[in-house]
Amino acid sequence: MACNNDLLAGNFIDADGQIRLIDYEYAGNNDACFELGNIGSECHLTDDQLDHLVTSYYGRRLVNKLARARLHAVMSQYGWTLWASIQEATSDIDFDFWPWGLEKYERAVATFCGPGLDRLIEDVQRTD
Fold it and tell me: Which of 8, 15, 93, 105 falls 20 to 30 Å from 113 in CA-CA distance?
């Protein structure tokens, strides 16, 4: 499916009560759960908020899709860490990419090393 692939809070615009998406630089075909997980990560949604977002998207609560979105959130954190590392080394933009990327890395590591990873891996394999 077509995805923006960069849905941080600043890329949502409220235009007279209608939500508009901007910044399609990284757009392409992707898994909807990546888009949902990336939104959750970039917007710092709580687990309950991400659950609501995924449930709203699919029209019902699907444990496997929620786990998939959470795992994709971790993947996006790690991916943005790599992107920040490259930007830190090559970008002319006056921004300190290193702390920004390190924050994402630390969040990814917390999930990789946390007690919930095994459950996410089990849940993503469900057929609900």
Answer: 8
Q: Locate tokens 């790599």: which residue?
A: 82
Per-residue pLDDT tens for 6-40? 888 888 899 999 989 899 998 999 999 999 999 99
| Long-range Cβ pairs for the range 121-127 (8 Å, 24+) | 121/67, 121/71, 122/67, 123/63, 123/64, 123/66, 123/67, 124/64, 124/67, 124/68, 124/71, 125/64, 126/63, 126/64, 126/67, 127/64
Locus of tokens 């080394």: 89
pTM of the complete model:
0.88
DSSP of 50-118: HHHHHHHHHSS--HHHHHHHHHHHHHHHHHHHHHHHHHHHH--SSS-HHHHHHHHHHHHHHHHHSTTHH
Residue 11 has a CB neighbour count (10 Å cut-off) of: 16
